[in-house]
Amino acid sequence: MALNVDGIIGNSPALAEVFKILEKVAPTESTVLVTGESGTGKELLVRALHRNSKRKDKAFVPINCGAIPKELLESELFGHEKGAFTHAIRSRPGRFELADGGTIFLDEIGEMDLSLQVKILRALQEKEIERVGGTQIKKVDVRVVAATNRDLEDEVQAGRFREDLFYRLNVIPLHLPPLRERDGDIITLAEHFLGRFCREKERGGLSLSERAKEMFLTYSWPGNVRELENFMERLSILCDSKEVAPEDLPDKIWTDIGETPLRKVEEVQVRPAGFVWPTLLDMNDRASGLKEFLESIEDRLLLEALDAAGGVKNKAAEMLGIKRTTLIEKIKKRKLLD
Ligand SMILES: Nc1ncnc2c1ncn2[C@@H]1O[C@H](COP(=O)(O)OP(=O)(O)OP(=O)(O)O)[C@@H](O)[C@H]1O
Ligand SMILES: [Mg+2]
Q1: pTM
Q2: What is the structure's pLDDT at 70?
Q3: How far is the CA of 219 from the centre of ligand 2 (A)?
Q4: Cα(225)–Cα(209) distance, integer angstroms
């Protein structure tokens, strides 16, 4: 059976390696631990794992261990009996029971308390659980897949994560490399998301300029695919042209790659101390009369703007506060670019 990785975009060697392990492990009953920085696609991968398992027609039950208040997490996972605590007005099954026959996804397992880790270990080893406030032990048939963006070995060293649970979970480690290490995927993903957002917003397509692509490849993507996705959505809203220019990219990218966008250069450019108005003496030194002198000042400003705009007349005209056609006329008349 071919691996179904619908929705996971990318064909970098790093991702291909992950798919290779996924293909082997998905049909088994093994516990899997998915690691990787925030936004690398851990959840997407775990869903693909379930989809490619023998349990695919049974429940997939995700639970974010980091998002649920600690005192509620145990009853969320294992359920509770009526009267177990103040607000337990009726009995309720937990996620393990709901996932019976299927897969439970323990997301952000690194955030879980040590006391609860013991109970997870028991559920894994004995395949049985006990509701909070309950007296009965229930058998459950659940495949456990966990994910974390922490380094669990470090957590074990620091005494925050049980070593036995770590080894029990880490039977098959699946590591998603950060986006910056998946060069081949960055542009593919960017174009995929741009296309999708432009269609959703019913606007014309947007392509990436070569320079924008280069910048994407240099940027470190601390937020990984999620960050890239959000940038593309922003561009699909804010970018009016057909092509994404470097100037359209957020300051965060410019700072990270150690450059300054043109729009900022104007602000931070060092200016000679004190502006001095030209005098008649200056004029007589340089020109035959007022008209010629003023034109020479104008020429210098036009050339500076053209230079700063990298020769893009639209942009130079904008910087000068004149129309593009006016700029072109002036360039022609004064033979500025010959
Ligand atoms: N390879 C990919 N192809 C398409 N979309 C992706 C890919 N990887 C991640 N995404 C998208 O990026 C976003 C983040 O992915 P996901 O939630 O799976 O990351 P995560 O590793 O679980 O992050 P966190 O640690 O913050 O929970 C989602 O919107 C997901 O659809
Ligand atoms: Mg996640």
Answers
A1: 0.78
A2: 87
A3: 22
A4: 20
